[in-house]
Write the structure tokens for this entry.
Amino acid sequence: MSGDLPELYFRVRENGALVFRVDTENRQRRLDMEQIAVVNVKNGAIKPHGERALSERDITTITRWMEARQTELAERRIDDIHRAIDHLNLTAQWAQTAASDAALEEITDALLLAMHDLRTVLVRKKADRIMAGAKT
């Protein structure tokens, strides 16, 4: 099994990950993980843990992981937006066909404000794109 394990393990957290070196070559013949770094996916920072010095191989592996993670998170964001569109459609169907007056009263103002805010942002961004395209 030890041959199948990666050299580094990334424990994902909000803005990046804690990076651990995976060690299976010890006297007790057990799996040990030693933290070697903290990474921030948003700003690209790699901070060695404690007094550690990271090897070029460590930095290369971490950098590749960060690039893959950024791609994965971007794909998830777009997928989340597509799901939000589905939820808006399902909400419209629910409001038209199944919602009680009490349920509509509970959600109408908050939903209208959120949709107005979203519409405002989308219209402004679309206008910006159109204006930028007209300048070129």
User: Anything to note?
Assistant: The radius of gyration is 24 Å. The chain has a mean pLDDT of 93. The first strand starts at residue 8 and ends at 13.
